Amino acid sequence: MGKRVAVVLAGCGVYDGSEIHESSAVLVHLSREGAQAEVYAPNVDQMHVVDHVKGQPTQEKRNVLVESARIARGNIKDLTKLDVKGLDALIIPGGFGVAKNLSTWATQGKNCTVSKEVEDVLKAFHAAKKPIGLCCISPVLAAKIFPGCELTVGHDTECEKWPYAKTAETVKELGCKHINKHVTEVHVDVKNKLVTTSAFMCNAPIHEIYDGIGKMVKEVIRLA
Predict the structure, then answer these.
(1) Which pLDDT score is estimated for 1?
(2) Which domain of life is it from (predicted)?
(3) Is 185 exposed, middle or buried (0-12, 13-18, 19+ CB in 10 A)?
(4) Residue 224 and residue 220: Cα distance in Å, rounded?
(5) Dihedral (C-alpha) 137, 138, 142, 145: value to the nearest 10 degrees?
(6) Average pLDDT of adjacent 10-residue blocks, the chain of 224 residues
(7) What's the pLDDT score for residue 134?
(8) Domain that holds residue 47
(9) Backbone phi, then psi, for 22, in 5-degree steps?
(10) What positions carry a catalytic annotation?
(11) What is the three-class DSSP state of 137?
């Protein structure tokens, strides 16, 4: 039997939910590794809804679980139903939804809170010594919950290629060790069974982001 991996989504769309290409890459690579993905999302309202053409918030209201179901092709469960006992690993793709709907990182940075449901799930996998894969902005969840952990969000020097490099500095301020890695590379924190990669934190061609996520998935499965 292949490994059973929980994939936690945060909506549908880079600016207010899960990054669609990252989420799809996670599911494709899990399938390739012979693993079974089980998709979950919290049944809560999004912080806001962003018009992805204009990049501006709208007055609309949307639900994180309902929107995430678009990516999961309807095969999704409420995050409250997740039982770590029957699962081998956890992966959380990136996208602003992680910083808006799974935590308050978008508005509060290092002083943010992580939603209780999400924090409980992360802590449950960590306590069970089961691997956790995080990409793009989602490693900040680990930075907040597991002080002293090692992770990567890419590079720590801002430039055209790394527009979000300040995130690495914030992670260091939280007491974590940040390791600079290229978009096609991952960092494995062996002690915490934490696998991270930068994905769209890097202004890189989409196939490189896809490949980096593939390495993250491979390492997560290996650790499981």
Answers:
(1) 75
(2) Eukaryota
(3) middle
(4) 6
(5) 100
(6) 95 98 98 98 98 97 98 98 98 98 97 98 98 98 97 97 97 97 98 98 98 98 98
(7) 98
(8) 4-223
(9) -65, -45
(10) 136
(11) coil
User: Which residue has tokens 């930068």?
Assistant: 198
In this prediction the pTM is 0.98
Identify any residues that bridge with 158 across adjacent strands, giving them in sequence order.
Answer: none
Say how many CA atoms lie within 13 Å of 59 toward its Cβ: 0
- How far are the Cα atoms of 132, 141, 201 from residue 153, in angstroms, in the given order? 15, 12, 7
Structure token pair of residue 102? 């799974």
Contact 39, 47 (CB under 8 A): no
Tally of structural domains, the chain: 1
What CATH number should be reported for the domain holding residue 72?
Answer: 3.40.50.880
- The dihedral through the CA atoms of 122, 28, 14, 40 has a sign that is negative
Instruction: State the Cα–Cα distance between residues 168 and 154, nearest whole angstrom.
Output: 8
